[in-house]
Amino acid sequence: MIPRKYKGAESSAIQRMQLSPDNPHEGSDKFYRAIIEFAKR
Hints:
Blueprint: H1 13-17, H2 28-40
């Protein structure tokens, strides 16, 4: 997790691949939620 003040531009390649519940690029939001659900088990 990266605090918002350290995040780059929304169009940067790193930003697009960041795992976050509010990042729809490259399926990052779905993968993030899957990790959370797996960790709860």
